[in-house]
Batch of 4 targets.
Target 1
Amino acid sequence: MNANNADYLLNFVLPQGPTGPSGLEGPAGTNIARSAYLATFNNGTVSTGIVVDSEERLPIDREELDISDLITLDSSNETIQFNIPGYYKVSFTVSAYALHSTNNTFDPSTDFVSVGFVKEGTDHVYIGTSEWVTDEVAVQLFGQGIISVVDVAEAYVLKNLGKKQLYLQSPDLKNTASTSYFTSPLITIVIEYLGRQGA
């Protein structure tokens, strides 16, 4: 600043040097959840429960959520196909019971329900569960496992593996404090994509 209080402007120019080495890779960003949610609800039309014969498929009525097109549900044939090869975690719940074989007396060798997640047209049970039915009241079956899908053309079904009929039944919605069908579903299936080797 001079005696007349004038301002001075100085311009500095810094030359650009060579490009430096690449830094470390940062953390991966957030991915969209790759999962699907399927369900069959109790619509109250059959008070004794929906009958499923031995070795027949359980009904899978609705695809509630599948934002990444992970699976294809054919509710007419009750089949599920996986759209991407890889590993999947499959969890299911089934509310069901079976009738006693003789005179309302529980027989552990016959009075149970058994359900499996099976490749269509085979006896390849990838996930299964069984529960005794001691008093002809629906029990909650839970099955969970991991499967490897190589061929996306293959279909899978939820199947009655018992030797007798099972009855899908859950509490009547009218007897709950909610009007939501999610309160007492007959079947729920959650499928999560875990990825694949080399991907």
Target 2
Amino acid sequence: MTTQERLLYIIERLAKEPCSTKKLTQEIFETTDKNKQRLVQMDISLLKNHFKDKMVTLSKQHKFIELPYFIKNITTNDGIKMKELIEFMMVFDNKMLSLFEKEEPLLIKKLRDDIKSIYLIHEPPLEILNSVFLEDIKRAIKGRRYVTLSYKSNMFETYTDVQIHRIIYASGNWYIAIHDSTWDKKYNLLRINFIKSLKVESKTFHRDIEIERAIDNFQSLFSKPDAEPFEVIVEVSSKIMRHFKHKKHLKSQKIIEESKRGLRISYEVTDPLVIVPLIKQWMPYIVVISPKSIQELLCKDVEFFLKKQQGLLHDKKTI
């Protein structure tokens, strides 16, 4: 076998499946002689130098990759942004990589190993979507088609001829925002994984700007899209202000004043439960400036908590 024939054989062989230098040597020369292995290794090095973006080696296994061009970029120095995308997928939605893993398991394994050595995900940041209706949901949203669906949460419900306006990710779970023309409210949220059946109807509906605006203003599962928003102003201690300067805890968060004492922040909410859990999370380093109703609500909750806690201090049987 000439050098040219040997190189062509290696290319064709590695395009089919991963293979070690030793195995290639056995197939080409019918021996695993060390000198012959060095010769094959020189061929592989030559191919690697020529096909920099097409060849990968992991655990002594060589493989030619034939992925789409934009995915192939992750193996090149120019593919930094694509590497960041793949890294994001691995950290936040590992399942997505299965789209490429079947075709190029060696490459994806290498990427997985690289990410595993960098990140530790304490808990899955995304709910796994097990719904078989996801594509139908997307089709209904894009085509503004009515749907009929059955839903099981605490009880079994059926929704006939409803509109799906958006897929929403909130508090670690996936929802759809639906609307019925007989409702006074702009939308209702349903967990996608709790949908038991779904049929996309042929009839369509027109775009509703008010509903879309209400969904765009979504801040929390406690948001009330039909309620008039009101302002809540809080004062954040300098001890924790960095956590609010570098992150918006709610979409409406707006810093209105900064001093040595800390921050004054404004929020626009439609229900106290949108803001109260956030305030409780950062107590005692956050206080409510206004409105009085939120102040009173928090004081009642704190008083109730203290009464219960003091009872436990004096009587361990108190619940």
Target 3
Amino acid sequence: MRKLYIAGNWKMNKGLMETRVFVQRVVPEINKQDLGNVIPLIAPAYPFLEEALRESFSSALQVAAQDVSYHSEGAYTGEVSAQMLASMELKYCIVGHSERRQYHNETDAMVKARMLKLFEHNITPIVCIGETLAQREEGKTEEVIINQLNGCLEGIKLIKGTEIIIAYEPVWAIGTGENATPWQAQEVHKLIRNWLKNNYGETVANELSILYGGSIKPANLKELLEGEDIDGGLIGGASLKEEDFLEMVKIAVASKGEKC
């Protein structure tokens, strides 16, 4: 049964006290729920990962980093290594987000290098892929997605399907208020699932969770989750409010929490 993730990517938002208060408020509510196969997750800014981990200790709420260096250690000012994340017993890390690709010129090869460092320390990468508006309008969505999958996963061994999580984030729908229709999202998720099947086999394709990201909020989450191949969301702005985050966790549990 595939895991269903409600993953909040906080980006460059929330300070120390805001992080502490958020976690203190949501953990008791999450602990009241029978989550089934739903995994609530937040990705705070680097300085506050330890605080989030401390406040969520022994709860169902998981914590992820927003990025990681592809260097192991050394003179790389400002970088944070996978070994450092592992020293905090972190279990998840986002790699290849479109904002990293756009603002920091990250390539598929660099995303792959980050994944390999995370694998060395048993941290699960949340691998982001997605097309721009221009690429979609030119009818290149399938080509872009396949190229990104090939580039990020070339030579990567997947056996169980739980080694990574894939997040499909159409760049044109991130932070814009626009989102892919449920049909558009499902269409690309099915494309990714079929690619996994062709390249890794039925087991990996059936077990690997594929999230949708792009202006998700409580009002549209249920309809998106009706897609057979959509296994939750990588959520930006709506994950910053405790009530919205908790509502989305409840929607996930009610709509798909007991199904694969």
Target 4
Amino acid sequence: MKIAVIGLGIIGGSYCKAIKSHTSHHVIGINRTAQTAQKALAAGAIDEIGAPEGLGCADIIILCMYPQACIDFVREYGQYISKDAIVTDAAGIKRAICPQLKELADKFGFTYIGSHPMAGKEKNGFDVSDADLFMGASFIITPCGAPGDKVGALASLAKSIGFDTIKITTPESHDRMIAFTSQLPHVLACSYVLSPSCPNHNGFSAGSYRDVSRVANINSKLWSELFLENREPLIEELDILIENITNIINAIKTEDKERLCELLEQGHRVKQALGE
């Protein structure tokens, strides 16, 4: 197949490298900055540098941009996309973009399928992209009414480049779970390192500090957009977290050792039951 990847940052670049390393597909790279596209070509991550007007040759198009940028791109260049093509995205939220991209797909005649690769790093850009980034990761698909054979084709591509688990879900279920598994930890990490104690952690920290603070190395522009687009599920999860923390605070303030032990044991039992 001919696969076009739009946006050659860490995710787009990793898609390109993974497809080139693990399949025989032809990869077309399109990027706003010409220098990055040239770098991808020189690295062998893509077979050619493309242009939006030439998308008619692509069998699969992967949009690796900020959520709103995906919509804007398809709105502007959808007329050039083949009616036989599959268009997917890599955005971390789905309710805010799936309906709009599905509407554009119906307008221009191609097939849209939402997807989300559950992989990444704390750093950004093509330079940190990795052909093995997706090895063993989960690939989430929101079909949005797409035919089964098209969904199967996208899932097969994901499997071929290293994804281990394929999850099929709705945009609503996706966003609720991502609020808990991804967005909430980023909020927690950023809040944690804002403590005035953080600059003095050297010599006093080990695994616990690293585990909690790791994802505070954040792309603030991207994650601000993700948080705001998914604000209702994220606020619900934050309210639950605040309630749980408040319960622990109150037990400490009142020196209620029995209650404190009970709360900590509840968390221990949850993790133990999950086998993690």
